Amino acid sequence: MVARMKIRGTRRLFNMELNIFASMILIFTNAPGRSAFNRVERRMAPLSKALAGLILPYDHFGNHIDSSGNTIDKDLEIKNFEHAGTVLADIWSEMVLDGHPVVAKYVPPNEDLPDVTEMPQRWYADHVRESQYMFQVVKCDNLNCCSPRRSNLHQIMYQRFLPAPFPFCQDPFGFPEDSSEAKFPAFLIRQSLSLRPDSYKYKEIPYDLYCPSVRDEIDGRTCQDCGLYSNSKTSLQAHRRDLHSKGLDPSARVRPLNVLARRPGEYLCRLLGDSDAEWIDVESIDDPGYSVETENASDEGAPIINNLQTWMENGASLVDDDVA
């Protein structure tokens, strides 16, 4: 499943960071197959190591499941789960990573979290650029909006935002029609060239224009009114609704192959011809009556393990051979 940058409820934080600290904020995610280099996953390794040998009893406050592993007491299940979560939080809160203390806290389900006042779409369009694997937030030149820059970065990046990579060839001089074998010049070389790929349809060249996995989706993610590129149709619809007063085009509704998960107002959908999964507003789905698909679901329940050593000696395994 392709990773996509999805920033939710953080525009207020970015505005504060821009005014106090940074001239630019860049957030990256790794492409598929590169998870070994994912900084977040690498930071999770010490947390997993701290749990080595830890056994969390499932029935700390009493047994909430029957002999088949099915829940028979929801309230007791929540209490047992809270105990396990609190133990994990206490262990992790004692750790220090790279000189920084770890702060972990168990959050009960359905707890009311503080509302975050998001910046309006106009601010978002002026300060943010989205792409499949990167998220940019950059100060503007209006001192009534952003504090003065603390660096001379804008003298190098005269476009304000990190420019899109594009292929180039010397013989023949120009942009190759087939970019699969072309070379992409370095950042400073691209900045020194006055040539740019044809971008009349866009406000600026989309950073994903030459990304093979999403190139066919560029036009569908680009605003027809102002040419701004978004990394998802959901983000584009919010932009068009708030900035251009455009309601949802009925023809733009999507019919997903399946729905993988739900959250308030959105479904995680897998679309036809796309291995990616995307959070899409319910109002954008052609038939919002989808049920959530569960892969490899089983009605047999979870195995009850009273003694792990005896259970393993009897030939049981933690992972089915068919699944491994």
TrEMBL record:
Top-rank taxon: Eukaryota
Signal sequence annotation:
none
The identity of this protein, by name, is Methionine--tRNA ligase
- Give the InterPro entries listed for this entry: Znf_C2H2_type
Q: Which positions fall inside the C2H2-type domain? A: 221-245
Origin species: Frankliniella fusca
Question: Which UniProt keywords are present, listed alphabetically?
Answer: Ligase, Metal-binding, Zinc, Zinc-finger
Q: Which GO molecular function annotation, any one, does this entry have?
A: zinc ion binding
